[in-house]
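tool=predict chain=A
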Amino acid sequence: MWTTKDGRITKISDMDDRHLINSIRFLRSTVKGMKLRHELAGFFALNFVQGEMAELTIEHSLAQEAAMTDDEWLEYHTSYEDLIEEAKRRDIVMFIGAEFFRMLK
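tool=predict ok
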């Protein structure tokens, strides 16, 4: 499933090719900002939890996510992997961009 910027929910398989490609490009172009906001939220949460175990859990999660590549982070937190699989199924990955296409080889 994919949620559009106007809040509509659609099946990835029902997206047209242009929407699918643009969604993948969007996630790839915004991942660094999403990761930063997510990390800041984790640090912010540390101010409100009580107990050593709660703090350790958040800190462990932050460390795990900091070690993730952008693609791993997207696969864990978004529908990125499903979008990519659909693009592969349609044989349109070459339209996503040269950088991405090289990564698939």
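The beta strands are 2-3, 9-10. The chain has five helices and two strands.
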